[in-house]
Amino acid sequence: MRRQCSKLLRQHSYRAVVMTVGPFTPLIDFHKLKEQHPDNYFILDYRDPWSYRHDQVSRTSKRSLMEMEARAVAAADAVWVTTQEHKEAYALLFPGIAEKIYVLTNGFDPEDFPEIATVKRNTNQWIAVHPGSLFGERFDTLLMLVWGLVKTDSPILKEKFRIHVYTSSQLLTRKIPRELAEAFDHYVVSKEAISPSEMMSVLATAKFGLTLDISEHHLTIPSKTFDYIGLGIKLILLGPDGAIPNEIKEAGHYVAPINDDSISSLLQKIVAQETGGEPLEKNAHLIKKYGLNNLQQELLRLLPE
Fold this sequence. Notes:
Helices cover 44% and strands 16% of the residues.
């Protein structure tokens, strides 16, 4: 990859070179690429922190990965991350780069969406749609949500609320406790994966978009969250606290940390507000902030003159 990049840089004059990670293997030799092309402006664009992968390797390998990452971020002219929490964490982890870390959030492209005005939303059923696979601890978060539904024991949730998971892989049903199996089958429906355009149409008719995160991923927000914002559907976000989740919550969406009491309280809030027909009135500023047009302007401001 480094040879291909060098070839392109010799053939063309670029204002800046943006290297988006993960995958993270390009970081291994990135400092060498910068040494070969010192006059080029290089940006490391993190969509996820490399540290999310460190638990999958041995302690020795983790130390080696951190040394590689330290060389890479030191060589970069700028480092982009998606949240303020990620910026602050990397400023502490790599103190020498604090002044060159900038936040460029994820967002959504309105052109990905169907003509929402022509789509009729299903209000009879409270369908919460989750696109994509649920591996490991994300599946555990789903189980906690189902436990919350059992504990809340709401007649209207029993009647109306369902979770549709669109996935190309089987759900980890072996992890379902025996005493939860009946409730899981009642509330959770596994559906086959569909194309991105078909998924947008499904989401446009759904009552909720569902984001299931894990507690350790406190530096990022799953990207589908922003599609829900753009579609104007109410969001159910179970994940760590942070500036963006708090902003989403203040806009009228349903947000809770991953623990039993918080999830139960959130479900009670959903029953109270949805049966009262409370509209989503404060989403407009999120649509403007996280829409592609605004993010493009933010990106241009971060590029060198």
